[in-house]
Amino acid sequence: MKSLSLPSLTSNFLQRSGIQIDNSFSTSWKQLGFVSMLTSCGFSKRSGIEATEVVYLLMLWVWLKVDTISMFAKESLLSFSSAKKDVLYDLLNREDLNWRKLQLYTAKKLIKQEGKSKVRAFVVDDSVKQRRGKKMPGVSSHFDHLTGRCVMGQQVLSFGYASDSQFVPLDNELFISQTKAQPLTRKFKDERSIVAKRYKQSVAQTKPAMVAGMVKCALGVGIETDYFLADSWFATKPIISMTLEHDLTAILRMKKNKMKYRLADKSECSAAELFKTQVKGRWQKLAGLPYQTKSIVVELNLAETAKLEPN
Description:
This protein is of the alpha+beta class. It has ten helices and ten strands. The protein folds into three domains: about 80 residues, no CATH class; about 130 residues, Nucleotidyltransferase, domain 5 (2-Layer Sandwich), CATH 3.30.420; about 55 residues, no CATH class. The longest helix has 16 residues.
């Protein structure tokens, strides 16, 4: 049998003396109370192997990062379960299961175990996975910042919780642009299902609206932070307004566009003009650190039209 190529962290963990993967997973499974979480999230099967057992195997597969779940058809893994790969694929193809809710509940348990952290922040970022299949649904044209060109693929918006000791994924959304979007090859079994609704959101919603929805869901289950971190793509007025609404301090890398910032003397400058007139040649040293900084207090009008009073 071909040996599995595992990630370095996983491989190092499995090579520790006395480590038994089934015992480690079983312990974590019980500590987090996965059975009760699966029940509250509506995971069930009418017949055959229980849904909790199938989800257990799927999580083991994700952790090992093996390309295919056919690994569970091998005789060496029959000690975990009698489930074959068809059972696993059937559960993955279910349109009524709320994986998003399960992920959020799991994250809440992990964060609660951490205790009170000094630094807590929501973090958001997007990534593009290039796909070349001409008939693959959900694929559209996206600008890839890594390559500097537009590619056909899937854009995933990732949302997580960061503290001074860990990072926990909270949520994700698939964003489908209006450019060269490839339609579904078949209809959903039920247009009211969770998967069908999420697909419609990926087509109809903007990325700022998706971010606002994910933040609202996280706060709704009791996951609280003090900061909101994102790169320059998310440095927009709707995002800043959303953070103010939820009492979050936004730490953003602002875009080098024509957005105007008002100084104390009521003059207005773009980001490039601010750097040229207020920052360049005026850097200040940070005590005890090999870095320089410059702080400027400005006002930004968050209204849709510039004629309204600034916030």
